[in-house]
From TrEMBL:
Domain GGDEF residue range list: 146-276
Protein's UniProt name: Bifunctional diguanylate cyclase/phosphodiesterase
Organism of origin: Phenylobacterium hankyongense
Annotated ranges, domain EAL: 285-541
Annotated Pfam families: EAL, GGDEF, PAS_PdeA
Taxon lineage: Bacteria, Pseudomonadati, Pseudomonadota, Alphaproteobacteria, Caulobacterales
Transmembrane segments: none
A GO molecular-function descriptor: cyclic-guanylate-specific phosphodiesterase activity
Domain of life: Bacteria
PANTHER family noted in UniProt: CYCLIC DI-GMP PHOSPHODIESTERASE PDEF (PTHR33121), SIGNALING PROTEIN YKOW (PTHR33121:SF70)
Amino acid sequence: MPNDRWMWDATATLEALGAADVALWVWEPDNDRLRLTGATRALGLGPLAPDCSSAALRALTLPQDRASADEILRIQAPGGEIAVRLRMRGAGVCIWRGVWLEEGRRAAGVAAPETRFAASDQDALTGLLDRKSFIAQARERLQAPGVHQLIVADLDRLRRLNEALGHERADLVLAALGSRLAAAFPPDALTARIGEDEFATLCPIDVSPGPEALRRALERPLRVAGFDIHPTLSIGAVEAQGGGEAPEAAELLRRAELAVESARSSGRGVAAAYGRGLESDGLSRLALEGDLKGAMERGELAPYYQPIVRLTTGALSGFEALVRWRHPRRGLLMPEQFLPLCDEMGLMSDLGAMMMREAARQLSVWRARHRAAGELSVAVNLSTGEIDRPGLLSDLVAIRREADLPPGALKLEVTEGDVMRDPERAAVILHNLRAAGAALALDDFGTGFSSLSYLTRLPFDTLKIDRYFVRTMSTNEGSAKIVSSVVKLGQDLALEVVAEGVENAGMARQLLALGCDYGQGFGYAPALSPQEAEVYLNESYVDGAAPVKARG
């Protein structure tokens, strides 16, 4: 009866070892003999084969491993592991790795390129764990008793960083954030880069510095390739009891990422904790996408108007038009809740044209009803990439003609990232828009991407200071310096300066002392419906000034 059991023969073994760039070795310390077979020539170990002494092996050992080599070449107990790095031909490195056998009289193992053994669990850019390895190790950590805290931090506006700086420079920002993350947590904490712009850490809650400490560590300004970068992050946190009843690591990570999404929907630089109420959000996304398809035609997407006030007199200067979705079942939805969906569905160009048309029409109505409103302006944001939309200029001309608006009454706000992606092309487009009667504002100025040499050549009327710096200027010396510098720059270039995020009278006074021209924010009013904005307009003219809250 034939034997169906297949056996390895010597030729097949050698062919397999050669194809895999692997050599086998056996070490006999009593005879001071090392025997090798397999891909010795490919590994640069040909001079050692078929056998050699320990002295030859030591000669190829990396200097930093020689003490280890001397130790493990001595007889050891069975089961003891061996691992030494050897120099290969071409300056490469291979690993000599194995285990002691037969009561310590012999050891055997394999030699292979270091890359075969190198940790594949690391993110190449930051050196932190990758997502798969983080989940695997977190699963083990969660078996330990006690309360564990998982924190996930997502870098805001990575797309704009890539557009403005280029991917290589943006990678430097990510690498720096990875280093800061590792330094902010205890050495034995698990730290990982789990997505392109997403970081995670897991450690016992009693040694965790917490989400706010993480924010302080990661949101410090940094300088990359001559650019001052001020990163902001959306942070989610979740706690879990370790032990036999601990949640699965991947599930815990999902919960933390839900919290990140909740934080992002509240604006940049926000932290949120996981709660059961977040679970319904993911399930409702598909329904929201379906509702969005006809929302514009039904008039559900519409501009709301946030007042812009002259700080010196308190007089109303104009409004910024901000899109809102008046959802028939969910109520009023903020942009963060649906603009990413609009982008994914290719609706941003249509939305931008609608916002410009409706804002211009509304301003025309106010100008006709109120003689004092003749000096008001309305600002409309251009979404990312909209500056390159082929119909933008013709839309502007037609909309101004239909609304009968004078030059400068309709202001277009452009982000720094859009300008710096192709400054020469942007300059041509902006000059054309300016010639067609639009005023121009550079939005979120101070976030660190602009080249001042280009700023002097672009036809902007206004600089808008990002709300993050305004919000933190009383507690962050760096933010205060940036606000002061932008105001001074605006004065030197004869540009108006608008500070976003003015939340109270104290902020307004501080900005006024710096010489800032205008302010907008919740201290004056949130974005108002057209009817509410008209009431606000009337009251401001009757009172002579727009009121500002004493406290934010």
